[in-house]
């Protein structure tokens, strides 16, 4: 008769051997889970080129990643962990903070990334010194995409608010700096978002995705308008371009688990999102560049298909519509990347997008003398860090 | 490749075990050797060249040492052993310590306004500290007559590179496995016993060590801004983490060895139950302590010399022990710290192990000192350690910081609570061997908990660790 140690040993052995035996039967299921719930293409097994591959730890690591994406019962194990995590700690994962109803917030955006008051003061001082420093030829505009919690603090649960509240002084510092009158280079989106929110609340409409970490298309248009207005102000203080017969077109509507729900493994939390862009009648995409590669036959949405970190350039033309002339550079993060590439391309003659992090502070400084205008956009919680990186390093020397 | 990865657990290990089981007896060493090389290539890449260099060099030194010993040529034997030490320390010194010494030289040069050396930092081959010590023990043991030189270089290659203990020990000395390299038993009994031990180690690492590590990391990565409360919870978490991580890895190695018919020495024997610092070092990383004892401390004269020389020997051994752990002043200070307390133990004189309240008090003092030592061991630099000590001893009173509280979940609290039991278990209760092969009812209960609760949770966490949705907001 087998002893308890034999039985337990065989169970342990089975636990390690069973996945290999079951993997072929579960393969499609695992790969579908990675595509749909992890929002990415499953890692492929690397090709074998030469003996050098065998000596490359990265080559072996890519084999490991390919195995991991094909492990059987991946969905069940991850869902179970999330379920236990929920019941045990009240949070789906350490990255998610809960709000009221279906609202979710990203932990890092609530507090962590913003840094201390001193840190924000340092970022502001860096920007002040930068503008007082050596001149540059471009018109530089700085703008911040306000965090969801800043615009909708009432949607935070008490536990999440406790994390958010210590960061309010830092946020106020930033907001006050941007709202200071007499500085057209500072685009104050907080005020504009709050105004738009006040208009939409009675209608039950939102500016941000409840289960995501970004604004939605409605919020995106507030940013787009602010950017166009900043470069094309008429006598009334508003942009005639924005108010022409631009058409808001629906790009897609999807019902799916939003990104924060995905991160938390809450596959059942479903949200319907509609992405819209502005298309202006008579504006044509003349050239589209993915780094140094010209894309043949570009259309309005081609730009959204270029890898996020690649430099994108769009040259537009129109016989009937006015475009903002000259060369424009937009240094941006996911807020613009997800929502505004096609829209912005409709307003600028020659527009280049560079994802923040893929331009060095030195290149940023050079761009200020080689472009006609430069926008520097960042999410609120990342702004101090990025301001220090780009403005402190490229500004005037600290006295 | 690490044991707690899906690739190892679900692909590499079952395939190697299957091939080993169906291979003819004479081909089993070859199966294990190929598997071990693959295992090293997986994480080490090109560094396998240095593993092979170490293997070839020490095998040749072993052959010469064996011949010299058989011929009674003592002087020649000493020369060969000396050359093998130079060879091994040369490899280890270059890869592990060259960056450190260049940094020191450049620091001095900068202080006196001289230009430092141009230097490209050298990458550290995985497991080099372990396999170098293991390989050198072969030459030592041959020289001491504790084993015969292996004729087949492949057998020696297997001894050095055997994947269960290649990366993080235990440091298996040649005389401990010499006969097993040639002949050993592969049986269901060994496989099941080894699997039990392996599963225990895996659960210790994943459920306890990995669960508490974020707290330790948060405290130590922010040592300049932590409160006294943060500092204490951080060092408690690290004390638990390092034990469960390292002893868990040793359990896995011992278990894997057993599966393939090897019996590796125990590496941890409830170190936090020690009643003195001397006892601690008989229970913590035992195979390293014994390596230094047999190959450094004893040859220096050990304690069979004057009191002052004994103290010198202790300090020297612990200086080397600290330096072995890493090329940083923090490890040197940590080694000296332990050496100092071993000398204090000696000054207090040899006594019977205390009982009752005195035993409790002594165990508390030892754990306290060990925790104090872990601060400098874990800190990135001496200045960071200084900041941590400042916070630890009341320099920054206040509640727990929000950043640390954020990491405290029910999972981490349970892991901390279970991990803290290690401070209270009886010193003779060796859970590893009990789980591995005891037939008592208590052992059966432990094993039932292991396979019904701990192992499923562990596998769940391992798979969950690879969940990585593409989330653009993180960029």
Labels describing this entry:
heterodimer, A: alpha/beta, eight-stranded mixed β-sheet, two-stranded antiparallel sheet, 16 helices, globular, B: 475 residues, mainly alpha, 20 helices, 0% strand
Word description of this protein:
The complex is a heterodimer of chains A (399) and B (475). Chain A has 16 helices and twelve strands. Chain A is an alpha/beta fold. Chain A has two domains: 18-74, no CATH class; 97-394, no CATH class. In chain A, the strands form three sheets. Chain A has an eight-stranded mixed sheet, sandwiched between helices. In chain A, a hairpin with a 5-residue loop joins strand 1 (96-98) and strand 2 (104-106). In chain A, helix 6 runs parallel beside helix 16 (383-394). The longest helix of chain A is centred in the N-terminal third of the chain and has 34 residues, at 4-37. Chain A is globular, with a radius of gyration of 25 Å. In chain A, 42% of the residues are buried. Chain B is mostly helical and 475 residues long. Chain B folds into two domains: 6-183, no CATH class; 191-275 and 353-464, no CATH class. In chain B, 71% of the residues lie in helices and 0% in strands. In chain B, helix 3 packs antiparallel against helix 4 (74-111) and helix 10 (228-259) packs across helix 16 (382-395). Chains A and B meet through helix 1, helix 3, helix 4, helix 12 and helix 13 of A and helix 1, helix 2, helix 9 and helix 20 of B.
Brief overview, please?
By secondary structure, chain A is an alpha/beta fold.
- Basic shape of chain A: globular
Give the helix tally of chain A.
16
Describe the oligomeric state of these chains in a short phrase: heterodimer
- Spans where pLDDT lies below 50 across 5 or more residues of chain B: none
**Most residues in contact, chain pair and counts:** A-B, 69 and 62 residues
Number of domains in the coordinates of chain A? 2
Give the neighbour order of strands across the main sheet of chain A. 4-3-12-10-11-9-7-8
Secondary structure: helix percent of chain B: over 70%
Spans of chain A of 5+ residues with little confidence (pLDDT < 50)?
86-92
Q: Say how many strands of chain A there are.
A: 12
* Count of alpha/pi helices of chain B: 20
Helix content of chain A: 40-55%
How much of the polypeptide of chain B forms β-strand, as a percent range? Answer: under 5%
The N- to C-terminal Cα distance of chain A equals: 84 Å
């Amino acid at each position: 008769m087998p002893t308890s140690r034999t039985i337990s040993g065989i169970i342990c052995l089975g636990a390690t051997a069973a996945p290999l035996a079951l993997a072929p039967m579960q393969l499609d299921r695992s790969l579908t889970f990675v595509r749909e719930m992890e929002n990415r293409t499953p890692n492929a097994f690397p090709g074998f080129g030469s003996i050098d591959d065998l000596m490359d730890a990265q080559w072996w690591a890519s084999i490991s990643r390919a195995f991991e994406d094909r492990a059987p019962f991946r969905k069940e194990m991850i869902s179970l962990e999330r379920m236990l995590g929920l019941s045990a700690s009240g949070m789906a994962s350490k990255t998610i903070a809960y709000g009221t109803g279906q609202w979710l917030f990203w932990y890092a955006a609530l507090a962590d990334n913003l840094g201390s008051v001193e840190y924000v003061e340092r970022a502001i001082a860096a920007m002040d010194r930068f503008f007082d420093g050596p001149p540059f030829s471009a018109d530089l505009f700085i703008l911040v995409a306000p965090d969801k919690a800043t615009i909708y603090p009432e949607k935070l649960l008490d536990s999440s608010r406790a994390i958010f509240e210590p960061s309010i002084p830092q946020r106020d510092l930033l907001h006050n700096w941007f709202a200071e009158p007499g500085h057209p280079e500072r685009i104050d989106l907080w005020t504009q978002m709050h105004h738009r929110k006040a208009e939409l609340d009675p209608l039950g409409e939102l500016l941000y995705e409840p289960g995501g970490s970004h604004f939605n298309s409605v919020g995106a248009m507030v940013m787009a308008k602010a950017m166009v207005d900043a470069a094309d102000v008429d006598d009334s203080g508003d942009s005639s371009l924005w108010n022409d017969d631009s058409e808001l077109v629906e790009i897609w509507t999807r019902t799916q688990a939003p990104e924060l729900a995905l991160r938390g493994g809450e596959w059942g939390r479903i949200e319907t999102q509609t992405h819209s862009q502005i298309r202006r009648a008579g504006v044509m995409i003349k050239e589209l560049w993915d780094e140094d590669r010209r894309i043949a036959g570009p259309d309005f949405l081609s730009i959204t298909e270029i890898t996020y970190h690649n430099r994108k350039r769009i040259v537009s033309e129109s016989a009937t519509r006015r475009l903002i002339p000259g060369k424009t550079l937009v240094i941006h993060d996911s807020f613009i990347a997800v929502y505004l590439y096609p829209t912005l391309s409709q307003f600028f003659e020659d527009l280049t997008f560079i994802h923040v992090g893929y331009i060095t502070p030195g290149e940023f400084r050079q761009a200020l003398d080689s472009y006609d205008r430069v926008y520097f956009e960042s999410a609120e919680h990342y702004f101090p860090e990025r301001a220090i990186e780009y403005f402190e390093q490229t500004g005037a020397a600290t006295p | 490749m690490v044991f707690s990865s899906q690739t190892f657990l679900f692909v590499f290990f079952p395939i190697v075990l299957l091939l080993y089981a169906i291979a003819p007896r004479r081909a089993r060493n070859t199966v294990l050797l190929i598997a071990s090389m693959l295992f090293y290539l997986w994480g080490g890449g090109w560094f396998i060249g240095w593993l092979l260099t170490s293997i070839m060099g020490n095998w040749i030194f072993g052959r010469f040492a064996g011949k010299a010993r058989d011929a009674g040529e003592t002087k020649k034997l000493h020369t060969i052993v000396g050359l093998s030490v130079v060879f091994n320390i040369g490899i280890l010194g270059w890869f592990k310590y060259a960056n450190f010494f260049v940094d020191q030289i450049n620091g001095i040069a900068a202080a006196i306004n001289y230009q430092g050396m141009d230097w490209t930092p050298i990458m550290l081959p995985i497991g080099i500290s372990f396999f170098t010590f293991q390989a050198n023990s072969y030459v030592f043991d041959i020289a001491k007559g504790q084993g015969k030189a292996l004729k087949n270089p492949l057998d020696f290659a297997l001894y050095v590179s055997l994947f269960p203990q290649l990366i993080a020990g235990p440091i298996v000395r040649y005389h401990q496995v010499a006969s097993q390299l040639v002949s050993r038993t592969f049986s269901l009994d060994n496989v099941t016993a080894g699997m039990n031990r392996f599963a225990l180690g895996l659960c210790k690492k994943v459920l306890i060590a990995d669960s508490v590590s974020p707290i330790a990391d948060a405290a130590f990565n922010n040592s300049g801004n932590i409160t006294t409360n943060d500092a204490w919870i951080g060092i408690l978490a690290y004390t638990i983490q390092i034990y469960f991580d390292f002893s868990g890895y040793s359990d896995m190695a011992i278990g894997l060895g057993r599966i393939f018919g090897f019996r590796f020495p125990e590496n941890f024997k409830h170190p936090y139950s020690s009643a003195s610092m001397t006892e601690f070092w008989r229970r913590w990383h035992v195979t390293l302590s014994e390596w230094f004892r047999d190959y450094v401390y004893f040859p220096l004269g050990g304690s069979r010399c004057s009191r002052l020389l004994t103290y010198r020997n202790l300090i020297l051994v612990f200086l080397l022990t600290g330096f072995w752990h890493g090329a940083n002043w923090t490890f040197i200070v940590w080694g000296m710290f332990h050496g100092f307390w071993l000398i204090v133990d000696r000054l207090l004189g040899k006594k019977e192990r205390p009982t009752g309240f005195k035993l409790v008090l002594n165990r508390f003092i030892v754990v306290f000192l060990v925790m104090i030592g872990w601060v400098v061991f874990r800190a990135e630099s001496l200045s960071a350690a200084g900041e941590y000590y400042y916070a630890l001893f009341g320099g920054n009173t206040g509640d727990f910081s929000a950043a640390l509280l954020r990491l405290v979940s029910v999972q981490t609290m349970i892991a901390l609570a279970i991990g803290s039991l290690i401070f209270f278990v009886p010193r003779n209760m060796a859970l590893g061997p009990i789980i591995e092969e005891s037939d008592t009812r208590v052992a059966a209960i432990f094993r039932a908990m292991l396979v019904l609760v701990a192992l499923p949770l562990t596998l769940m966490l391992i798979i969950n660790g690879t969940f990585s949705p593409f989330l653009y907001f993180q960029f």
